[in-house]
Amino acid sequence: MTSRVWLRRAYDAPTRNDGYRVLVDRLWPRGVSREHLAVDEWLKEVAPSSDLRRWYDHRAERWDEFRTRYLDELASGEAAEALASLVSLARKRRVTLVYGARDAELSNAAVLREAIEARLPAGD
User: Fold this and answer.
1) Are 87 and 119 in contact (CB under 8 A)?
2) 14: which DSSP letter?
3) How many helices and strands, by DSSP H and E, does the chain display?
4) Which positions ≥6 away from 81 have C-beta within 8 Å?
5) What DSSP letter does each residue of 21-58 carry, written as one string?
6) What's this model's pTM, rounded to 2 decimal places?
7) C-alpha angle 88/89/90, rounded to 5°?
8) Are 9 and 109 in contact (CB under 8 A)?
9) Residue 99 burial by CB count (10 A; 0-12/13-18/19+): exposed, middle or buried?
């Protein structure tokens, strides 16, 4: 079965197969209009904190530590509530996490997809 959680860069055109599109960055992607982005929701609460985002600065050598710190942030407060809402949504339909970073595999969206899928029942 294919994943119920997809990743799509904010600068790529949306597709009709995306399902429910959620922007998961704290900042709106530069140069992208609301019409082009076509998100159903902007969930800032699930994004990495500003301090963590600035510290990471998309440096590959900091990836493992970023992932660990971000997962810690997702475990409590507003971030945990936002994560729970994404998990609930992913149980019902496809969710596409929209992000602005250049590298999907080193983005907060990749960590977030991992966190969501870990909370879905096996086979979902």
Assistant:
1) yes
2) P
3) 5, 4
4) 45
5) EEE--SSPPTT--HHHH--SEE-GGGSPPHHHHHHHTT
6) 0.93
7) 95
8) no
9) buried
Please say whether the beta carbons of 21 and 98 come within 8 A. Answer: yes
Lookup result for tokens 């969710």: 95
Which tokens hold the place of 2? Answer: 């294919």
Give pairs for 101-104: CB < 8 Å, separation 24+.
101/9, 101/58, 102/9, 102/58, 103/58, 104/7, 104/9
DSSP code, position 122: T
Q: How far is CA 97 from CA 8, 14, 55, 61, in A?
A: 6, 11, 22, 24
Model confidence over 56-112: pLDDT tens digits? 999 999 999 999 999 999 999 999 999 999 999 999 999 999 999 999 999 999 999
